[in-house]
Amino acid sequence: MTMQISTTAPQAPVAPSRGRLRPLGQDEVRITGGFWGDRQAVNAADTFAHISARLESEGWLPNFDLAVSGGLPEGRRGREFSDSEIYKYLEGLAWEIGRTGSPALEERFRAVVARVAAAQEADGYLNTKFGRPGQGERWSDLEWGHELYCLGHLFQAAVARARTRPDADDGLLEVARRAADMVCREFGADGRDAICGHAVVEVGLAELARVTGDDRYLEQARLFVERHGRGTLRDIEWGRKYYQDDVAVRDAEALRGHAVRANYLAAGAADVAVDTGDDELLEALRRQWDRTVARRTYVTGGQGSHHQDEAFGEDWELPADRAYSETCASVGSIMFSWRLLLAEGDPRHADLIERTLYNVVATSPAPDGRSFFYANTLHQRVPGVAADPDTTSPRASSSLRAPWFEVSCCPPNVARTLASLDAYVATADDEGVQLHQFAPAAVRTTLPDGRAIAFDVETDYPVSGRIRVISRTDAAADAEWTLTLRVPAWAAGARLQVVPADGSAEEWEAAPGAVQVRRAFRSGDTVELDLPMAPRLTAPDERIDAVRGCLVVERGPEVFALESVDLGAAGADDVAQVALAPGATPVERDGRVWIDVVRHGESDAGWPYAEPVDAARGAASVAVPLVAYHEWAERGPSTMRVWIPAAG
Amino acid sequence: MTMQISTTAPQAPVAPSRGRLRPLGQDEVRITGGFWGDRQAVNAADTFAHISARLESEGWLPNFDLAVSGGLPEGRRGREFSDSEIYKYLEGLAWEIGRTGSPALEERFRAVVARVAAAQEADGYLNTKFGRPGQGERWSDLEWGHELYCLGHLFQAAVARARTRPDADDGLLEVARRAADMVCREFGADGRDAICGHAVVEVGLAELARVTGDDRYLEQARLFVERHGRGTLRDIEWGRKYYQDDVAVRDAEALRGHAVRANYLAAGAADVAVDTGDDELLEALRRQWDRTVARRTYVTGGQGSHHQDEAFGEDWELPADRAYSETCASVGSIMFSWRLLLAEGDPRHADLIERTLYNVVATSPAPDGRSFFYANTLHQRVPGVAADPDTTSPRASSSLRAPWFEVSCCPPNVARTLASLDAYVATADDEGVQLHQFAPAAVRTTLPDGRAIAFDVETDYPVSGRIRVISRTDAAADAEWTLTLRVPAWAAGARLQVVPADGSAEEWEAAPGAVQVRRAFRSGDTVELDLPMAPRLTAPDERIDAVRGCLVVERGPEVFALESVDLGAAGADDVAQVALAPGATPVERDGRVWIDVVRHGESDAGWPYAEPVDAARGAASVAVPLVAYHEWAERGPSTMRVWIPAAG
Fold this sequence. Notes:
Chain A is an alpha+beta fold. The first copy, chain A, has 13 helices and 24 strands. Chain A has helices spanning 34-57, 62-69, 82-100, 103-118, 147-164, 172-187, 201-212, 215-227, 259-276, 279-295, 327-344, 347-361, 410-419; strands at 22-23, 29-31, 379-380, 426-429, 432-435, 441-446, 452-459, 466-471, 481-487, 495-499, 506-509, 513-519, 526-530, 536-540, 550-555, 558-563, 578-580, 587-589, 592-599, 609-610, 622-625, 627-628, 640-641, 644-645. In chain A, strands 2-6-7-8-13-10-11 form a seven-stranded antiparallel β-sheet. In chain A, strands 3, 14, 15, 16, 22, 23 and 24 form a seven-stranded antiparallel β-sheet that branches. A five-stranded mixed β-sheet of chain A has the order 1-4-5-9-12, covered by helices on one side. In chain A, α1 (34-57) packs across α3 (82-100), α3 packs antiparallel against α4 and α9 runs antiparallel to α10. Chain A is globular. In chain A, 59% of the residues are buried. Residues 1-8 of chain A have low confidence and may be disordered. At the A-B interface, α10, β14, β15 and β20 of A face α10, β14, β15 and β20 of B.
């Protein structure tokens, strides 16, 4: 394997100007297989092709051709934000090309960029929905028009391309710069005192500033962040908190309103805080992250309780029923957490990223990479209806994975996340490398003082909890460096062993948080982290009303679910019919996790509220298998629950 | 008191052609005070004036004037269904005039009718939103246009007027007939094979047939009922069940979709089933009522779980958080239950009406009758913000009672219900009278064979559980009749005493259901029912996940709530901070209901999911007062919960 070594411009989505940790890009970390490598392979081979075909057949990419041929607005298809799906797709392609160098994807990328570039207007404006005769005027609907939102995704695509193929002559970066210049003219300090109803332009501009070195873009990002909370957007039924225009970013206590918007804005605000040296803002964001994780996050890592406004609920409002937990909100949550991790190095941020990756991002796509959960409920009461492969579903109504949505942000969001995932595995600082996510991987980097670091990670995690880090270089005797391994918060009792290529092993307990090994690693030296992977029961905080009296089974980073197709042994066909047997403990057997359940209330007395009784439960318990949450709904329609009532 | 005696045309909203019970109208039953009499007085003096002023200032009534002056569509204000609020207001006025004969309201009624009538087109069509140049064509948007829905409310208004002032020359009945004739031409067997996206025209047409004797209207109602479930309306994100166009009415298992639409349709279908002799349809409706009450109804009687689509959830999906429980859905539920009660005489239908009246209908209006809950949550997590008296709120976002809504169906729906409430108190059959609701009242009627019945009801229910029925006539010795008193399902241990004007008292236990006393009542003979009113704890069915491990306090027909303003003694300021003390039992003291609570989890560990622990609770318990649910949010912004967690 050969990778270009870089210390200043990582091939990665985020490159802050300062911070506790420096990201290691695709050119320094390569996932080589395992749980995530398998998903990256499906993503590369199938998901991009699926998205590409749909962007054409739905008319969303042809909209750009119509813009050139004069066929707008008559021929336009898709929602007002459909341009953004092309940009997320381009961003994903850029990362995938950076990862694998696929000539076919490179050709496709250039063809799509050419069609997008052709539709850009002379002054840099680019949008297929606004500004032409018969369309709304530019910026006439900042609440719902999504013009700046679309450009934010364009900027992210251009950043991905510039970082992975800095010498490409495809013109995407120039398209983005012209558009960003136009945004700065229109919305600068002397321009419109306004924001977009859907954040993402902030994070796009901030990263574009990093790529180009043009601080006007950072300043424009700062202006957009600071303008939130001034009520420049119209009040609506759900309040201005829906688009985070209720309270200034630096004054908010928690993420609130639309969960995708909230996370995208927080990520952009973190970039601004870091690059402008605004530590007060950074501290405010950390405080919001803490409160959001403590009180507004599902056990899966998912965020957003409400279907109606796709929004966070209040503190402790985390219904399993109709949990919205939008896939895209989790992508945004990872963006936000990753920026805080880089800024502060707190392993809790990496813990949440891991939980979110395994239980939301991995849950959304079907094994074939061609259908997706838009929302990720924690309780499916009625069997879903399988979506026709040729249909286009409304966004979240589909109870099973669907191939495409009228609002189809989730498929390209999953695709770009998987294609760039290598860049979320490890970071470096002046003294070594930090491994945050556990996957088979090759890591090759150089510290600022020139110490070369090379190691491979071997693991079948999360099948087992054994992670082996094997050095592939000989450090000079005076060139010690520090390997830091995250120990997840759930992994109490983890053990660490250092096995030198020549010499005797040492072993010690590794407490949750992070464990460090500092030495002059020699080729073949191995560090082995053993995480306890026995399935475990987890209870909710007693203020989470919706799942009071219930427990969830977890194993390693994975949340498990009870699915009705597994209830045959219990003589049941619906998860509503069973509860955990008293004292039930999950066990692992035959490669699955099992737990004892008993039959649950069946009476139909008419009125379902009555005098409390101590239920006498003589029913025999029976063991049933659970399914990893990310694998549910892969065996046909079923009912499902993550939180299982404890009997009695 | 003088009342016109009638046996064939009751002054009541519903007059079925057959059934187990015959409704006694306003001319036979008069509520004379008490809990409901007080609310009727506020309704008469304040709510109608409030609604009247708002219908003018919002422009919804002036829309009719603009229709005459040619000012439409430019000057039109309000949503597409705003005409219907004028009709519900007229219906309410008609009942109020029937109840009290107010000259001022009579004058107002005639003035409004004249403005409405002037806007009717030559062919009978009447709607301010459709059919003019620049407006949508008639019937061009059956999913959302609400044209037939508006006419359904017009028919109900005309029916109310015809039953209360049969000799009035105001012309409203003629307006309704011309509109109904037009509907029959357009949508008859040879017309459009279509339905309205919002049911109510069915129940309006059926009752109009009863008033006019014109069976074409009944047939048209039947056609509309039968056409539901054929998918003639467009599929939408929430599915066709939203407007009950997914499954035929006679094939459905439960009410589903939009809760107001579902109940209005069920009420209309019940009318059709009764008047056409369709017992299969009636049985299907009874089955749906059973399942809906057993699995889809809140402890308050409220219905509809979802904010997003204002809809029923699945079985057992009854979140207290953001319980929608729309006020209007409860009005619809009472309409449906009342029709089944008349058809079958099952006291369970009256039980649900009572529960819904005390805990939803009475909850919606503020004591001054000038602001209203649109939705009736069972758990308020953050203190609401008081609505400005001059504002117009979006429909359900207001967390406190609001004076008016952009979708303002609830205020006139409450008003028409309270104005007609006398007609829901009692019924008759060939052998006597059945008292379903307990209020101070005068009842005067005549049985088909000429036996005159006159009695008064004296009670301060629900302050106490004592209901005294005092005969005001002397029946002949051979003219026995049967007085039937409902004994609510919660009233185990109730006792009945018969105290003849001359003679010794007899007493016996009255089991829940109904109790009958048959005798030749003499003037002064008294029947006294004593219902046990000690506050009691109630637990949910174990399949209602959202409130597992919680209990609710009830007393008589009233559900109680814990409100944060009452938590001072517990050192708490938020209902999230307390749980029921182990073994807590509610007690009544100083005119309030009290219960012991303990302080609840306060930790903020960061991640709110952890290994289960047996919480050691050393905290001292303290008694706090509860508030009747219908009185919550009357002491400023607070948090509130109906279901209180049981500690440990």
